[in-house]
């Protein structure tokens, strides 16, 4: 059974200035409070002051001086303690930073060693990825390709597989993304080139007139017509363009009118439009741009120039692989089937019930906040709308590194998200809870992922201490 870690606060510092303890005498009268070190003249019955100090005067002075000295020592000691406290805080932060740097370097070395092997141990790679991959150096790009099955475990096959997949993408792009007129021009140029090579003549002959079939005519309404298919996808292309303009507007990589941001949007547009044409039952669904964004960003920021130049082709293949086990969530006709989104939402509710029945009952029956009101977006878009971009990359390391698949870890993270705000949910009504879950607060991502990892379907009870 897990317990949440409570934040430890430093011990409360004492008062830096010590005041006089007794401001009133024992008789209850209001005595005067004198400044430290002030000498009191002893008054004789006749009202005259003595020329000499009595022994009791000297004793009083000694006691007073001792008291002042003690005060000074205490103030100096507390000031020194306060200074040490702040120095210790700084030293502690610096120590943690050094430890993190050392840990990141060790992880980087482990990854570089592992992916340099002839046969890569995918289980070890999954374990490392689940703890978070280091930024920079192209390691995340390579590891993601391996975890998605785009690169085979045998390193000797990498070049062959990459070349074949990139050539296939280029062919698909040529066949499906070019307009019919552009495609017809390329075919005609190829035919003329073949005829020229066959005749071996350099003389210019009469122009050859080619017949245009009914299917190739721009006004053809037949479903097999290339022009009909082209116009059919025009509206989808416009929707993709609108969505890409809204993709992570805070990042110059995606937004703005710079040449490189326009290039990135054009590549992502090609990927999404090609996916739509190859999957006519699903086509493009709003939000797929958000799922593509992390993949394309990671592959486009690789340190290998050849990989960067082929980021579009590699991103397409990995995007298709990532959606392969969740694409049914985008198909409305399958919503009520065993592979549809409603079935997945039910699995999330069951997971929450097994780990925290009290919270499940409150959401299900008291506040009546159903999973479809908030988790539909969490699941279909793989949490890309709930966290900042850097946190998304970290979460995806764990999703892709899960040996039981992306969907298994995704449901765990969704359940952990509910548990992390348990106290607020239990005290909230429908409106408050819906707002909280649709605008999820910033939390410690490492704590969230550890909590998700530790959840078990057969756990009968779970409580999170907050």
Question: Which features characterize this protein?
Answer:
466 residues, mainly alpha, 19 helices, globular, disordered N terminus, disordered C terminus
Structure report:
The protein has helices spanning 55-115, 122-130, 139-147, 158-177, 180-199, 226-232, 234-245, 259-278, 288-300, 305-309, 311-323, 341-355, 357-366, 375-380, 389-401, 406-420, 422-426, 430-438, 445-454. By secondary structure, the chain is an all-alpha fold. The longest helix has 61 residues, at 55-115. Residues 1-58 and 458-466 have low confidence and may be disordered.
Task: Give a topology summary.
Blueprint: H1 55-115, H2 122-130, H3 139-147, H4 158-177, H5 180-199, H6 226-232, H7 234-245, H8 259-278, H9 288-300, H10 305-309, H11 311-323, H12 341-355, H13 357-366, H14 375-380, H15 389-401, H16 406-420, H17 422-426, H18 430-438, H19 445-454
Helix pairs in contact: 2-15, 4-8, 4-11, 7-8, 8-11, 9-11, 12-13, 12-16, 15-16, 16-19
Helical fraction: 55-70%
Largest sheet: none
C-alpha termini separation = 15 Å
Got a strand count? 0
Order of helices and strands: HHHHHHHHHHHHHHHHHHH
Q: Could you tell me the mean pLDDT? A: 79
Strand portion: under 5%
Number of helices: 19
* Contiguous runs where pLDDT drops below 50 for at least 5 residues: 1-58, 458-466
- Cα-atom Rg, whole angstroms? 36 Å
Helix-strand category: mainly alpha
Shape: globular
């Amino acid at each position: 059974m897990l317990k949440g870690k409570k934040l430890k606060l430093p011990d409360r510092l004492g008062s830096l200035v010590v005041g006089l303890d007794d401001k009133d005498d024992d008789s209850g009268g209001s005595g005067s409070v004198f400044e430290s070190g002030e000498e009191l003249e002893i008054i004789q019955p006749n009202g005259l002051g003595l020329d000499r100090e009595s022994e009791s005067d000297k004793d009083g002075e000694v006691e007073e001086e001792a008291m002042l000295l003690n005060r000074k020592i205490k103030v100096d000691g507390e000031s020194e303690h306060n200074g040490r406290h702040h120095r210790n805080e700084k030293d502690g932060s610096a120590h943690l930073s050094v430890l993190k740097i050392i840990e990141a370097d060790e992880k980087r070395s482990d990854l570089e060693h592992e992916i340099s092997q002839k046969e890569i141990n995918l289980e070890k790679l999954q374990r490392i990825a689940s703890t978070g991959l280091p930024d920079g150096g192209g390691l995340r790009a390579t590891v993601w390709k391996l975890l998605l099955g785009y690169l085979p475990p045998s390193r000797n096959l990498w070049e062959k597989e990459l070349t074949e997949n990139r050539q296939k993408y280029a062919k698909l792009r040529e066949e499906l993304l070019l307009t019919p007129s552009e495609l017809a021009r390329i075919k005609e140029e190829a035919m003329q080139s073949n005829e020229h090579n066959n005749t071996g003549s350099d003389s210019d002959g009469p122009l050859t007139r080619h017949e245009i079939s009914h299917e190739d005519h721009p006004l053809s309404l037949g479903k097999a017509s290339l022009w009909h298919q082209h116009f059919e996808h025009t509206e989808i292309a416009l929707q993709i363009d609108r969505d890409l303009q809204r993709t992570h507007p805070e990042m110059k990589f995606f937004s703005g009118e710079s040449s490189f941001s326009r290039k990135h949007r054009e590549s992502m547009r090609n990927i999404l439009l090609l996916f739509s044409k190859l999957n006519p039952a699903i086509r493009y669904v709003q939000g797929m741009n958000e799922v593509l964004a992390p993949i394309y960003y990671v592959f486009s920021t690789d340190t290998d120039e050849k990989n960067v130049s082929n980021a579009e082709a590699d991103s397409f293949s990995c995007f298709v692989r990532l959606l392969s086990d969740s694409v049914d969530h985008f198909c409305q006709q399958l919503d009520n089937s065993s592979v549809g989104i409603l079935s997945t939402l039910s699995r999330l509710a069951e997971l929450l019930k097994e780990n925290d029945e009290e919270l499940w009952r409150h959401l299900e029956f008291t506040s009546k906040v159903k999973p479809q009101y908030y988790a539909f977006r969490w699941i279909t878009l793989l949490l890309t709308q709930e966290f900042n971009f850097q946190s998304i990359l970290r979460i995806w390391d764990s999703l892709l590194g899960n040996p039981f698949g992306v969907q298994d870890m995704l449901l765990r993270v969704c359940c952990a998200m509910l548990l992390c705000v348990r106290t607020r949910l239990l005290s909230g009504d429908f409106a408050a809870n819906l707002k909280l879950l649709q605008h999820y607060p910033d939390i410690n991502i490492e704590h969230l992922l550890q909590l998700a990892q530790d959840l078990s379907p057969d756990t009968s009870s779970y409580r999170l201490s907050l």
